[in-house]
Amino acid sequence: MATRRKVVALSGGIGGAKLALGLARVLAPGDLTIIANVGDDFEHLGLHVSPDIDTLVYTLAGLANPELGWGRTGETWTFMATLEQLGGPAWFRLGDGDLAMHVMRTHRRAQGVPLSTVTADICAALGVVPRVLPATDDSVRTRVRLDEGWLDFQDWFVGRRAAPPVRELAFDGAATARPLPAVLDALADPELHAVVVCPSNPLISIEPILCVPGLREAVRACTAPVVAVSPLIGGRAVKGPTAAMLNDLGAGATVGAVVERYRDLLDGFVLDEADAEAAPALAVPTIATKTLMLTLADRIRLAEDVLAFADRIGATPG
Ligand code: FO1
Questions:
Q1: Which of 92, 106, 122, 245 to mutate to test the pocket of ligand 1 (most atoms within 8 A of CB)?
Q2: For ligand 1, is residue 98 a contact (CB within 6 Å)?
């Protein structure tokens, strides 16, 4: 049942996109705005690839590749096969349909069209109703410091299968990046009902959004409740390097470590049932529910739990 409540979600990666889909199914058309991470973006073969935007767009369009978690479903790989035949780089897989997305984005960016406009036009073309907004139209690129030195994000995440421990993170361009005006407007909307920090990797999906000057402050200034969903279940990530990264950085793969990263923003934190006993030590209002999203029904139910929690927080004075 659709209910009229304006919600802004912060999302990156596969877990974030899953909850974004659940929120899209629960909320009325036009009530969901998703701020997408751009820290994973990079140039490959001269193409501007925006993985977290594309994962969101494909997921919301029902075009996501369920096995891979990225790229399109029903994909063909003629381009990659031919590229390899020609001795091109094979480490980053570009499906034939997915390739059109990167070519289109690159073509239009080269004409001076901002990433946010290209993204809006792609969403319109694919019938995606929620607004998908890059955190910024400027370049913010995640880099990771390994024992051997600094690497661009995709060289580590895909090229090295996220195996070498990360000792430090940097977000190149963050200091001069400007938050998208539409992002600041959405967060400042007096009708905003809730801000949801999706169960994305706090270090490489959410931090690159919050590090854009003015963005963290805009979330903190929201009158609407800010609720984050734990990306960990029993100290482990559902998928991806969240737990390993928190351990390698010395923070520890605990819900407490995740809450600490968001503490200045949070009005509530959604735990998985497996971590319910950690609630008292977190010193923030919590609920415990099933956060594992295997089916569409799981995505919808978690979205409903998060929104009901935000409703309760919003209704509680003080
Ligand atoms: N992840 C991989 O592990 N291997 C790949 O070959 C790969 C290709 C790829 C192509 C387009 C795209 O949008 C995402 C792709 N990803 C791939 C995922 C990408 O590394 C993202 O940054 C992760 O999803 C983390 O958000």
A1: 92
A2: yes
Q: Is the pTM of this model over 0.90?
A: yes
Domain range annotation of the chain: 6-47+140-146+171-315
Please indicate whether residue 262, judged by its CB atom, sits closer than 6 Å to ligand 1.
no
- Which ligand 1 atom sits nearest the alpha carbon of residue 98? 11
pLDDT at position 126, please? 98
**CA 121 / ligand 1 centre spacing (Å):** 22
User: pLDDT tens, 122-143?
Assistant: 999 999 999 999 999 999 999 9
Distance separating alpha carbons of residues 96 and 5, to the nearest angstrom: 38
CA-to-CA distance for 70 and 82, rounded, in angstroms?
21
Sign of CA dihedral 174, 226, 49, 51: positive
Q: Ligand 1 centroid to 235 CA: how many Å? A: 24
CATH class of 6-47+140-146+171-315: alpha beta
Render pLDDT for 226-280 as a digit per residue (tens, 0 to 9).
999 999 999 999 999 999 999 999 999 999 999 999 999 999 999 999 999 999 9
Residue nearest to atom 25 of ligand 1 (CA): 13
Query: Measured between alpha carbons, how far is 318 from 303 in angstroms, rounded to an integer?
Result: 25
- pLDDT attached to residue 269: 98
pLDDT at 3: 60
91 alpha carbon to ligand 1 midpoint, in Å? 10
* DSSP secondary structure string for all residues of 133-147: EESBSS--EEEEEET
d(CA 120, CA 137): 12
